[in-house]
Amino acid sequence: MSLAALACSLALSGCGRKDTSWESSAPTVSEPDAIAYVSKNFDYRRYYTNEFVREASTPPERPLSPTRKLRLGLYWVANDQVAAWFVGQAKGYFKDVGIDLQIVEGGPQRDNLSNLVGGNVDVYAGFAESIYQEITSRTGTDLVMVSANLKGTGNAWIMLDRTVPQGSRSTHRVTVDDIRGHRIGVATGAEYWVAFVQEHYKLGPKDMVLVNVGTTPDALIAGAVDLYQGWYDDQPRILDREGYHNYVVLRFDDLGYRSYSYISAVTRPFFKANPDLLRAYVYALEKSLRFVIDHPAEASEIVALDCKDYKLTPAEVRWRIDQDMPLFLGNASEPILAFDDQHMLLTVAQLYRYHQIELPPAQ
Question: pTM for the whole thing?
């Protein structure tokens, strides 16, 4: 099953707490005002740390003893989007530091963020959006983010360039003319990004027609929609499998959207009680992700073998690693896995502007 549009839906809808229609998500304050409000009224830095990432280049003095079981609850299914954890298990990096890493799949009917809050997993691997939604909700949980595999978002709108044969690659770049007056396939709960694109291109409410779609790009292939909201490193692979190579992608990162993806988050009580365990975990994860970056071909072989239930080839895994490489590395201003204060401020300010989180009243 693909990450697809349902990923967009779940990441922003959290536990169903938000009204996610694109009209209700339309911003009512400017970006500078949102940044100023968040800076003054919300201690966003409290909820993430680079403490363990800064120490990740130095191995622990000794493995944890006895070995500690660590339950990692994924946002989605255990396919190649979680390559670093598969590599770390296969290479023995987690075992070497005394961690028995147990991967708990997420996906439909498997809400591992709720499982984290309920104590049924120890670490949640998810997105900045849903994590801050949980933190800021009226019944929210005090969470701490300790690392981020991807310094950005995979969210994108995908279009088939029907001016070229479906078996050919397109060099077309999506413009506002491809959006205005066209049908956008969006999963329920993902309308937040429609408001983001609408504002970016200064489009009015009647300039796009939203069509509710499912978790695969069938509607795009059938011509029922003109653009499809999904992930740039997911749906294109599905299209390739179906023989549609003429896709083009509008990545939200390229439009100025800011986020972090596949964040490792824990509850604050767990964070306070297990510093040595988390230090070992981040060390092993950094070593694993570094291997993916430095040895993508071998990593692809490892992950394809571990993802046999999803019938992925090494070439398909390598394609995804290549797509994600810029987000693994970020802008090189901070180490892999690390958070940047300004980047996170912009992330939280976006969520506030588009009414995806509730913040305290102005002081």
Answer: 0.91
